[in-house]
Amino acid sequence: MLMRSDPMRDWDRLARGLFGQGDAAAAAWAPLDAHRNGDVITVEFDLPGVEPDSIDIQVERGELRLQAERRSSRPDGAQPLVQERFSGTITRRLMLGEQLDTEHVDAEYASGVLTLRIPMSEAAKPRRVEVRSHEQSEPAALSV
Known about the structure:
The protein is mainly beta and about 140 residues long. The protein has one helix spanning about 5-20, and strands spanning about 1-5, 30-35, 40-45, 55-60, 65-70, 90-95, 105-110, 115-120, 130, 140-144. It is rod-shaped and about 85 Å long.
């Protein structure tokens, strides 16, 4: 249904460490929670300090790609003394199963949390199958 793995995240962390972006850059991916309620999968990403207009969500071939920009609040020319808060590009990738309707993803951003709602596809939902019998005049319904 929803695959959590992001194979590029570990490589991104390694590259940041090698090129001197330090521990603050380790936060450059968005932590998430996901749950299913009925026929809808809800995914919530923590994106504190991100402006809504910088959020880009794309779905292609079962992969959801999230990219957002967190801008620094430091004035130009100011020398940082301590810099633990990340600024820059935040990315995250999720593999979506075929059971999800990727044409109808709903996105909402409030209080630093991006919430995506992804409905189940019609083909993945339970359906009733009618069973006919030559011995009965009325067809019987069978739940699947």
